[in-house]
Amino acid sequence: MTVASAVIVHAFVTDDYSIKYVQHYSDLAQPLFYKLTSYWRARRLDHVLVFLLALFGALAVYVNRERHRELIPYVVASSRPSRCSSWS
Question: Which of these, 44, 24, 55, 28, lies nearest to 84 by C-alpha position?
């Protein structure tokens, strides 16, 4: 999911209209800020939220891997997202 997201965001920024998603939600006249936020326009919010939580969780574990070494396994185990009924 991360690689696919990066490809689509790159397509928005570089005006690569070979991807239909970019054709539908972007325009040459849009400022860069709107091109970057166009990725989230048609995405369901829960997918974006899960992606951002995973990204920030991985960053937090990486930053604190030496400082709180004994707690990291518990943090990783407890931060696994539970299956929500709306995410089916």
Answer: 44
CB 79 within 8 A of CB 57: yes
Tokens in use for 61? Answer: 């574990």
Query: Would you state the pLDDT for residue 18?
Result: 92
38 CB-contact burial (10 Å; exposed 0-12 / middle 13-18 / buried 19+): buried
C-alpha–C-alpha distance, residues 60 and 64, integer Å: 6
What are the structure tokens assigned to 8, written together?
A: 């689509």
Task: Report whether 12 contacts 26 (CB < 8 A).
Answer: yes
Sorted by sequence, the CB contacts under 8 Å of residue 64 that are 6+ apart come out as 72
Is the pTM above the cut of 0.85? no
Kindly report, residue by residue over 30-56, the tens digit of the pLDDT: 888 888 887 777 666 566 777 777 788
